[in-house]
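As promised in the previous annual report, we have extended the structural survey to additional targets. Below is the entry for Periplasmic heavy metal sensor.
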Amino acid sequence: MTAPQFFRRPVMTTPRTPHFFRIALLTAALAVGGVAAQAQPGPRGGPGGPGMMAPGGLFGGHMDHMLDLVNATDSQRSQIDAIFKAARQDLAGQRDTGRKLHEQMATLYTATNVDAAAIESVRAQLSAQHEVASKRMSQASIDAARVLTPEQRAKIAEVMKKRQARMASRQAG
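The corresponding structure token record, generated without further manual editing, is:
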């Protein structure tokens, strides 16, 4: 039995960055930005305040660009690349498991009788899977942040603070 159209992903005709790589970039952005935000004074002179980073994450999917902005060395770039490559390899098996769980969820919702207990069970499995991936990517992000100098992390936080201000002004106007 196949899932109804609204549960299927659209077929992409252009090459896309692998899903876990995008997650890795976002998680790296959050971790590096979080570390940098702690070094920045917040609105009342304390640590970095809430909303320090833009919703798209520190790198916004453009890690090379951000590493260019902070003049990352070739050594730093290769170390960060190796960190996220290892994390992607660690999580490679989860993609198929996640796909199967999503298909199972779609099947449960389209059954003649909706089984709330079964849906909750699959939801819990999906949540646990996301938690494992989040923890792994968070650790990769911490490791990547440690490769950068405090000055580089501060520069990234500064760029993201400006980006956030631009986004906030667009939403307000």
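The CA atoms of residues 9 and 113 lie 25 Å apart. The first helix runs from residue 19 to 39. These points will be discussed at the next consortium meeting with the crystallography subgroup.
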